[in-house]
Design brief:
Helix content: 10-25%
Radius of gyration: 29 Å
Oligomer: single chain
Distance between the termini: 45 Å
Strand content: 35-45%
Number of helices: 5
Structural class: mainly beta
Number of domains: 3
Number of strands: 57
Largest sheet: 5 strands, antiparallel
CATH superfamily of the largest domain: TolB, C-terminal domain
Length: about 700
Amino acid sequence: MIKLPFQKYQIGQCIINCHDMTVTVGKESTQLPAKVFEFLKLLIAHPNQTVTKEQAIEAIWLGNIEVGKRGVGNAIWHLRKTMTQLGVNQDDMFKTITKVGYQLLIEPVPIIEKSAPHPILSATSKPTNKLLFFLAAICTVMIALVFSFYLYINQISGSDSDVKTPQIQIQHLTNFEGVEERPSISEDGHYMAFQWLQQNQNSQIFIKDLVNLESPLRQISMTAEKEVSPTWSPDAQSLAYFRVSQTGECSLHVRELITNQDKFLDKNCVSKGYFHSIDWSPDGKKIAYSKQLSDRVAIVTFDMSSKNIEQYTFPNAGEEDLLMSWSADSSQLAFVRSVELDAKILLTDNLKQERLLIDNEKMILSLDWHKKDNVIYFNGMRDADFVIQKYDVSSQSIKDVHIDNTIYSLALNEANNELIYVRHIAQEHITIRSLNDGHIIRQLVSSSRDLYGQFVAKTGDILFLSNRSGAWEVWLKHESNSTQITDNQGQVTIPVVSPIDTSFVIALKTDRADNYTLYKGSLPEGELVKLIDIDGDVRNPSYSPDGERLYFSSNKTGQWAIYRYDFAIKKITQIIDDNGKYAIESNDGGIYYTKENVAGIFYLSKDKKTQKTVTPHLNALDWGSFFIQNKQLYYLKRTKENDILMRIDSAGNEQEVFSLPPISIRNEKALTPAYLGTVIVSMLGINDADIYSIPLK
């Protein structure tokens, strides 16, 4: 064991207690596993020095190299995760020295606790028997008085003294390294299927025994591809799930657990983010799942008997139906329809008649129908909070259930009357990195989520989205301080900054508006003025290199397309009608663009005579993570081992620029050019998720 001269240390905001192996920040305290705490003690013993992996293996794992290698990696991961859970910026405490070891960056300060002298028994006197008897008598009288007062209070207050708000008991169901997501509970409550993303691996499906907690996990996935969204059959004999290939192609499968037989059912399903886009009907006859159509995502059903596939919901262009849950009698389906951050819950039946239940929600992430109580549980964002709510289908009333940090998937264990949910840990922040080797030149980190930084070329500042104020707003980062630009004006999206001056454009949906509209502002004041009126929604603006044109996507004709707006003549021109998502102007006046829910970057020449695929390797979820600098195209390529920044030169040759650990870069528009030779990257930081349960009553 590592010996330290003191029992307690303060490291920044943290109090480290060697007696009970706890880390405390404010009122929050966490006990660490023994080996992890020994590793922390080793760092404390060598502050601001590099503790090598070999040193740690020798001191803590007694030279056992194979066990020690895994142990050291797990220990630093656990320490970083703990600090993030306690609200501490783990990058301020720990530094990884690549391929060598780790450093504790803050000097520990020992806490020396001195016992105060007893008011009666001084250091120079010894208690007599009479004095001890006298003290015991006083204590006895005091206890009797307190007990009598307690009985008296209970008599005069009756049952009111029992009226207390019970604390919700949160139980950890998984606590593994990586991301455990999309839980599904068997009807009898005995088993939980979930997907688990471990480092340098694809998501795989596992089953956990919820009755015999000591039973080992059972791995269901049998391929090297990503397998996600497990969903139980009513008899708990099969799992339906999605299989996603390296190129992003999604297929629906069913695996029979007794025979281990796997059946392919359909292709072109949609697995997006952590949305649980699949549900098996309680009567066992149908599987509902999300499927990609040309310019929208609809829910279809697969009939297990006839093998027929039938469209079940009918969204408009640009709308996505990604979440669903069946009623108890399998005659109705509750589902979420969303466009960007806007979401609503609808109900449809076997006659395909849709009925609105809940409107004007922001970013619903999951839902599940409690069959016995006829209540729909769902969760989403309310300002900066993640709130679980329930909708009573009979009374049409809504009530808050639980608030927690970064909740994603939900599932119901009706057998035990528990709500299962997933809580993520991610320290999202903005970095400016070198295009030579990827090292960090500048970093923007706050206690909130800072995302999608845009470089202000005129001043060197950064414009970005953040929920520092409690709601998603646009902020401006100067050298020494940050200024809030928008303030409760509506729902905002990623801004774009002019390359020639301090103006910026943003797609904004005001509270009473039906659609997003393009607004223009000027920094640092940021006062917004409507830029154009357009009949339809708008999204994803980008400036031309000379700042004279603006590209954006819109569904003004009923189909999503790419448009160009010329500032001088105030003219809108349609450029692409092929389900365009986001576009930037190329060096020769053409455009590079992406399509909705389609992987790859595409090119259209200025004269529209040449149209081609530039690369198929940009993930559909990373639709805006590409840019041009110094006449070269850069984009984000993801593998199970790394997030890689790639460069394509004028001859079409691809080259790796730098790589980061997998899933360390945000989705959507996480890359944007800064000053020459640098790039702004929106980072996830720690990427970890565990599954929890809370009682419903």
